[in-house]
Write a structure and sequence with these properties.
With 450 residues, this protein is of the alpha+beta class. It binds adenosine-5'-diphosphate and ligand LMANGFYV. The site of the ligand O=P(O)(O)O[C@H]1O[C@H](CO)[C@@H](O[C@H]2O[C@H](CO)[C@@H](O)[C@H](O)[C@H]2O)[C@H](O)[C@H]1O has 15 residues, from helix 9 and helix 11.
Length: 450
Amino acid sequence: MSALTDLLADWMPGQRWFAGKGRTWASVTEDGFFLDQGTPALSVHRVHVTYTDDVSETYLVPLSWRSSQDDDLAHAYVGAVGDNHAYDGMRDREATVPWLTHLVAASTVGPLHFHPAGVAYIPEGVPGDLISGEQSNTSLIYGETAIMKLFRRLEPGLNPDVEVHDALRTTENPHIAPLLGHVQIEGATEGEEPATVAFLQAFVPNASDGWRLATSSVRDLYAEADLHADEVGGDFAGEAERLGEATAAVHRDLARVLPTADVGTDWYGELATQLTARLDAATAIVPELAEHAEGLRTLYAAVADLTAPVTAQRVHGDLHLGQVLRTTTGWIVLDFEGEPARSLAARRELDSPLRDVAGMLRSFDYAARHMLVEQPGDPQRAYRAQEWAERNRSSFCAGYAAASGTDPAGSPLLRAFEADKAVYECVYEARNRPHWLMIPLTSLARLASS
Ligand SMILES: Nc1ncnc2c1ncn2[C@@H]1O[C@H](COP(=O)(O)OP(=O)(O)O)[C@@H](O)[C@H]1O
Ligand SMILES: O=P(O)(O)O[C@H]1O[C@H](CO)[C@@H](O[C@H]2O[C@H](CO)[C@@H](O)[C@H](O)[C@H]2O)[C@H](O)[C@H]1O
């Protein structure tokens, strides 16, 4: 291994966006080029990691280079290669400027191709500030007008976030933030499709994300020992209902501008097989799931027998309260990438819109229960959490039903999607926040028993 791959192999596992946590590395290779030769210089690397279970992943890693160590950037320090010091290019503000300069110029630099959407102003010459709460990707806010998301895990093909936002441009849907541009990288090998590296979107100012709003409502409820969820000042049910309406409006436009398919009853059988396979794979990673496996298999088997007609369409794929923003006028839905752990092809598949309804219902459970993690033995709070979750889950469904004409509540398909999401969450939590694993496990106990 070169000095740089050694350095990356030490540094990457500690990064939140690194999805290979818990896996053993078998090999690592890297190819890089300079995007900017200024001071600091900015290089961009594709880091290809193969694990001992034969899975491999390619990550995008921008590094900035300085000839001496800078104490102000200690938090971004990656390490030294010879006389040069490498920093995380997304945390070194000066190194974030070239991305937008190249987008404005529609440049090609080495294998990188910059594509401005050509519809709105892209700020130039300003540095980007890393958003707090970095998750699967890394986002920078430029001057409160644009936000650039850097996709960390590269996969050949257009990223669904870009594809969906591009398609929705003609709809003027009020629940979407406009696309400003995107960046593609050529395939690493001959014949491989380009992958999406970055996505630039209009920044929505003065907004608060749904997770923050929902959890302050739960906090309000806990503070009032004798009041119910509909009696406290921070009641969230009105917002949950509007969020249901917004979700239905987004689904309606997705079905208008992207392909749909009326699927036959075979679809249910295939779905039940997929859900069961995902349960089996997850149980191998999270042994605690075994306790619920029988109940979940029964739930999935019932899905195979359903016959109601389904129109499959493009969906969000990972809808939760952290993906929606409340502005002064209403809700904005973000991040149409789908679940980060799924392959790009799977994330682009047509699906039932109930997949997203289930995602949001899970999120109401999470918002209600996450404060119980610290106090697991408090039955009074557990009861109130349940009450808050139920109230907001049914308000969301009521809003969705009013706007779409279809009431999702009570559907067995919805229940199976909720269970599938909770199974996915068990793996996500086991890998990223093991102390939160009890949240999806508790929900599965409910979903698997009936
Ligand atoms: N267009 C936007 N305007 C304002 N804030 C945004 C915008 N897009 C994303 N954000 C903020 O960045 C956070 C992460 O964005 P997201 O697209 O969900 O990234 P990730 O894929 O890493 O989860 C969101 O929760 C939101 O707070
Ligand atoms: O936002 P991402 O696309 O990175 O989604 C991943 O991370 C989410 C956590 O931030 C995770 O969501 C889970 O935790 C949320 C609370 O933090 C909760 O609201 C969601 O309902 C729950 O699924 C998401 O599953 C994962 O893909």
